[in-house]
């Protein structure tokens, strides 16, 4: 087996290679003066099981993923697994208004032609996986890895900021061995959310708010304020995919004691790796 790392999550590719006891292929990624991308795989892949780790976020990484896939096709590989740690565009998994695309389906159609299998991590909408027709596809959960980090941090309550992530809070809380609950969120628009007041027994506790994605930070900022109002001693925001759009990190710093994310997208809050979750799936 050999791992190829796209430029969006180099730490994860390196950890995955280590976890698998496989080499990390040498690659070249650059941009032409006009902005077009270029990739090159510098190690031979013939006869090998190839694992490419590459995101569909931000947009330029979609092209990079496609170029790597095409380069891999030029080799006589044994099996090709495309790991998409952060599957960008999964939030548009249906048409909300007439005339819109199903963006998640568009991503699937662009990429499914290349690999034998696709592995995603904590994909926003599980339904995205069902769009894959020409290759196998599976989503793995990084809950155990997030829970491991939160346990180490001494968290004693786990809360999801909305009903959509109840199962995440339950799963993480169970692994950490602490209670879990959820808040009720109303999304007003892309940047504004409202959290309904709700009583949760978090007074004096170190609470983790867990989510799949932090983008603008609006969800976490509001959830955190609610938990602080309820008397939480400390609030830790934990997500798998730290997108941190515009000034999200400075907004979060005003109300969260700590922000942690996984290595699906390399950033300054990356504190745990989902490599073991991917390796477990590859070992099946
Ligand atoms: C929404 O359903 C997701 O699980 C996240 O809660 C959302 O994407 C976070 O976005 P933001 O950080 O912009 O509030």
Q: Can you walk me through this structure?
A:
The chain is of the alpha/beta class and 284 residues long. It is built from 8 helices and 15 strands. The protein has helices at 10-20, 59-73, 103-111, 143-152, 166-176, 218-229, 248-253, 275-282; strands at residues 2-5, 27-31, 37-41, 49-53, 79-84, 117-121, 136-140, 157-160, 180-182, 184-187, 193-196, 206-214, 234-242, 258-262, 270-272. Helix 7 links the parallel strand 13 and strand 14 (258-262). Helix 1 (10-20) packs across helix 8 and helix 4 (143-152) packs across helix 5. The longest helix has 15 residues, at 59-73. The structure holds ribose-5-phosphate. The site of ribose-5-phosphate has 13 residues, from strand 12 and helix 6.
Helical element count? 8
Structural class: alpha/beta
Biggest β-sheet strands, sense, barrel: 6 strands, parallel
Rg, rounded, reads 19 Å
List the uncertain runs. none
Proportion in helices: 25-40%
Strand composition percent: 25-35%
SSE run:
EHEEEHEHEEHEHEEEEHEHEEH
Distance between the termini: 14 Å
């Amino acid at each position: 087996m050999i791992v190829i790392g796209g430029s969006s999550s180099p730490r994860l590719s390196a950890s995955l290679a280590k976890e698998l006891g496989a080499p990390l292929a040498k690659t070249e990624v650059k941009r032409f003066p006009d902005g077009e991308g270029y990739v090159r795989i510098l190690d031979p892949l013939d006869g090998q099981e190839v694992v490419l780790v590459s995101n569909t976020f931000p947009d330029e990484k979609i092209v990079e993923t496609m170029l790597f896939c095409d380069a891999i096709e030029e080799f006589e590989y044994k099996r090709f697994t495309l790991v998409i740690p952060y599957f960008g565009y999964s939030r548009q998994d249906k048409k909300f208004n007439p005339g819109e695309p199903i963006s998640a389906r568009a991503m699937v159609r662009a990429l499914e032609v290349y690999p034998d299998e696709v592995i995603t991590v904590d994909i926003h909408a599980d339904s995205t996986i069902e769009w894959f027709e020409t290759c196998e596809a599976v989503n793995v959960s990084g809950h155990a890895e997030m829970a491991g980090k939160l346990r180490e941090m001494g968290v004693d309550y786990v809360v999801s900021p909305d009903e959509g992530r109840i199962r995440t809070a339950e799963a993480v809380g169970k692994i950490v061995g602490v209670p879990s609950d959820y808040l009720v969120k109303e999304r007003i628009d892309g940047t504004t959310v409202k959290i309904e007041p709700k009583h949760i027994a978090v007074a004096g506790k170190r609470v983790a708010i867990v989510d799949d994605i932090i983008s603008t930070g609006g969800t976490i900022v509001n959830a955190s304020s609610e938990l602080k109002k309820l008397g939480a001693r400390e609030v830790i925001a934990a997500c798998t995919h730290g997108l941190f759009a515009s000034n999200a990190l400075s907004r979060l710093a005003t109300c969260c004691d700590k922000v942690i994310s996984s290595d699906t997208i390399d950033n300054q809050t990356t504190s745990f790796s989902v490599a073991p979750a991917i390796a477990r799936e590859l070992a099946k």
